[in-house]
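The methods section describes the discrete structure representation at length, but only in general terms. What matters is that the chain and its backbone geometry are given together, residue for residue. For illustration, here is how one protein appears when written out as sequence plus structure tokens:
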Amino acid sequence: MDSKALIQAYMRTKKLTQYQQVAAELGFTKSHISSLTTGKVQLTDATAKKIAEEIGLDVEEVLLSLAAVRETDPEIKQAWYNILARYSKSTGTAVALAVAMFLTPSHGPDNTAHN
């Protein structure tokens, strides 16, 4: 789960329809929300923890997901995803893993039915 997915989960839970509402509730500027939702920046761990707690998500899973998303080295990124997969398996929560892997840009061609 990257920052955009976490912001969108926050919006769904809080029944918000505009990023401007999210910015006001979380004390962010509109440009910071824009940077978060375009993937230019990621939430800090402290802010991600606060949001996860507020909307009832597993804090540890969210923090592991963000660590994986933030990592730029492909081997270390994969290690984070492996840790997240083991954590998710042990707790029975695999939703964030699926979302994180789906929303995170890959370091090669996407595997599709066409390749």
User: Anything to note?
Assistant: Residues 74-91 form the longest helix (18 residues). The chain has one domain: 3-103. The radius of gyration is 14 Å. Residues 3-103 form one domain.
